[in-house]
Specification:
The structure is a homodimer. Helix content of chain A is about 45%, strand content about 20%. The first copy, chain A, is an alpha+beta fold. Chain A has a 4-stranded mixed beta sheet. In chain A, β3, α4 and β4 form a beta-alpha-beta unit. In chain A, α3 packs parallel to α4. β4 of chain A pairs parallel with β5 of chain B.
Chain lengths: ~160, ~160
C-alpha cells in the first residue's frame, strides 16, 4: 500500500472509533507497505489513559510480530503524537512518523497536550506537577540487582 | 503506609522483577497512603515497549478503580520517569511523583532516555526521527466526526 493509502486507513479508523465510543484518533503501523497493526484511542472506553492510538498500535504490532523492537516499521497516525506517544515511538524504535492533523488541530478539538510538552521541557523543580526525590540510596538496589543478573535482556 | 514505606514497596518490586526476567524498575500508585496498584517493567518479558513500571501501574490502578482519572492518587517509582511515563502520569492526572534513582543513575545502568528528552524539546523538523505531514486536510474528518458525536466523553 502507498503511504497515502496507509494514512487513509488510520484516518478511517479514527472516524470509525468515534462511532464506537472512542476518541477521534487512529494509527497504523506498517512494514514495507503492509499493515502490521491498527490502533485507536480507547482512553475513556477502556478506562486506560495510556490507550492512545499510537500506544495501542505499538502494543498490537509487537504482539503480532513477537518483538519489543519495531525497527523497520513506520507509523501513520491521524494526529501529531503527544509526548507519551512520542516517547513510546522512540522506545519502540519505529523508523518514521507520518501524521495528519497537527497539535493545534487537536487543541482546537479539545485535546490540548501543550501543557505536557511545556512541562517536559522544564527542569523538574520548575514544573507544575510536584516531584520529590525519596530513598535514592535504597533505590539503587534495583540497578545493583540488574548488574548482578546474568540472564538480563538489554534493550 | 508512610511515603517511605510505599517507596520501599516500589523498590522491592523492581528488585524482584529482575529475578523474574524483567527490567529493574517498579512503581506503586497509592491513594491516601493505601496501595492501589504495583507495576513493574515487562518490556522484554512481554514484548511490549510501553510496559514500563509507571505505565503498568497506571493501567492497573485504572482497572482497579474503574476510571481513567487518577486524581487524588500519587505515584512512587523506583526511578525518575522517562518522557513516555511522564506523559502517561500527566494524562492520568496523578497528583504527585515520588522517585528514587535519577535519570543519571538509569543511564549509568544502561537505560538512557536523554536522547528522547532532547528530541522532544526540539521543533519537529530538527529531530533525528524523520517526521512527515500527510493528508492533513483529510485527517480533519476525525475531529469533524468528534464534534458531531452527541455521546462523546470528553477528558
Amino acid at each position: 500500500m502507498s503511504n497515502e493509502e496507509l494514512m487513509r486507513v488510520a484516518i478511517e479508523a479514527a472516524v470509525e472509533n468515534v462511532k464506537n465510543g472512542g476518541g477521534p484518533f487512529g494509527a497504523v503501523i506498517a512494514k514495507k507497505g503492509e499493515i502490521v497493526s491498527v490502533g485507536v484511542n480507547r482512553v475513556t472506553a477502556n478506562n486506560d489513559p495510556t490507550a492512545h492510538a499510537e500506544v495501542s498500535a505499538i502494543r498490537a504490532a509487537c504482539a503480532e510480530l513477537g518483538t519489543f523492537d519495531l525497527s523497520g516499521c513506520e507509523i501513520f497516525t491521524s494526529c501529531e503524537p503527544c509526548p507519551m506517544c512520542l516517547g513510546a515511538i522512540y522506545w519502540a524504535h519505529l523508523d518514521k512518523i507520518y501524521y495528519g492533523c497537527s497539535k493545534k488541530d487537536a487543541a482546537d478539538a479539545g485535546f490540548d497536550d501543550s501543557m505536557i510538552y511545556d512541562e517536559l521541557a522544564l527542569p523538574m523543580e520548575g514544573r507544575m506537577k510536584p516531584v520529590e526525590k525519596l530513598l535514592s540510596d535504597e533505590a539503587m538496589s534495583s540497578f545493583d540487582a540488574w548488574r548482578e543478573a546474568e540472564d538480563r535482556v538489554e534493550y
